[in-house]
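Page 37, continued from 36.
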């Protein structure tokens, strides 16, 4: 391929889709979206601050929670400029290079969140099924290695499929389905051979999201088997309560992904507004809900936050 054609593809501009039919109300729509982003940033920063400053929370479970909060914070940062940019009238289109970079971060952070949720399920499995060896299995050194593995898995597997987007010929209308860039959106506009992107992308989804979901399910089957073997009803309830926050976080993450996938696969006849709404739910719902879930359901986090606000009030 000639350098001229590559340059032409690199200079391509892609139109972002806001909320079709609601253009006159963008300024009003921007208010709840701005509020959601503020809550995402403040909520996840608060969780990170509480875990960092409270020595009693320097445990494996809360280290993984800190990873989850950091991932959610980065997800919000990766899309805030285009989503609010459209609603406030600052931008209508983006360059191919920016689009590729944004899709890398969105997909990479999704895989990272899935990996963190898997690590958290492993933490709950050890805590309930093998409590006497919990501290010896999940040492600080092991947690650091798990964190590095999560980061490597999420960032190093994606570049082959993302980099190839730079060299595709985009001859179809350059209109994205969402207020941000996704890999599946870009290959939909390409006229080049996309078999590698399709096959490798499917491999990434199966080896990350699907495999993680299956392993999380298996871990909870084993946890349930162990809990049901406990004689005391109170002890069974107490053990399961330690998993409630994580189960909610798993549902909050996977349900929007499944919904967006269904809309992309089978909802071509649906209004573009449905696609846009599902895309924004996929991006914003987990980062918004996870701090709320852990602030309400996790006693140690809740008490520390209450103490934090009481100190500020005095």
């Amino acid at each position: 391929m000639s350098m001229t054609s590559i340059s032409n593809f690199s200079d391509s501009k892609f139109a972002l889709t806001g909320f079709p039919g609601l253009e006159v109300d963008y300024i009003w729509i921007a208010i709840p979206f701005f509020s959601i982003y503020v809550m995402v940033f403040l909520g996840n920063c608060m969780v990170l601050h509480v875990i960092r400053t409270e020595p009693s929370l320097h445990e494996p479970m809360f280290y993984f929670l800190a990873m989850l909060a950091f991932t959610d914070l980065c997800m919000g940062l990766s899309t805030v400029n285009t989503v609010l940019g459209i609603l406030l009238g600052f931008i209508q289109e983006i360059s191919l290079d920016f689009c590729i970079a944004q899709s890398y971060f969105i997909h990479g952070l999704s895989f990272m969140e899935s990996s963190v949720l898997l690590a958290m399920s492993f933490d709950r499995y050890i805590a309930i099924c093998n409590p006497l060896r919990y501290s010896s299995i999940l040492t600080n050194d092991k947690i650091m290695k798990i964190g590095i593995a999560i980061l490597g898995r999420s960032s190093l597997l994606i570049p082959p499929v993302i980099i190839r987007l730079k060299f595709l010929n985009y001859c179809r209308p350059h209109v994205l389905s969402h207020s941000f860039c996704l890999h599946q959106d870009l290959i939909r506009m390409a006229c080049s051979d996309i078999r590698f992107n399709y096959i490798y992308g499917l491999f990434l989804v199966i080896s990350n999201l699907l495999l993680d979901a299956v392993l999380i399910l298996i871990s909870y089957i084993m946890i349930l088997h162990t809990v049901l073997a406990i004689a005391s009803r109170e002890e069974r309830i107490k053990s399961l309560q330690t998993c409630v926050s994580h189960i909610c976080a798993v549902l909050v993450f996977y349900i929007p992904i499944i919904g967006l996938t269904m809309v992309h696969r089978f909802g071509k006849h649906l209004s573009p507004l449905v696609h846009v709404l599902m895309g924004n739910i996929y991006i914003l719902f987990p980062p918004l809900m996870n701090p709320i879930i852990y602030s309400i359901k996790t006693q140690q986090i809740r008490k520390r936050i209450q103490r934090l606000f009481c100190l500020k009030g005095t």
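Residues 78 and 102 are 7 Å apart (CA to CA). Flag for discussion at group meeting. The chain has a mean pLDDT of 88.
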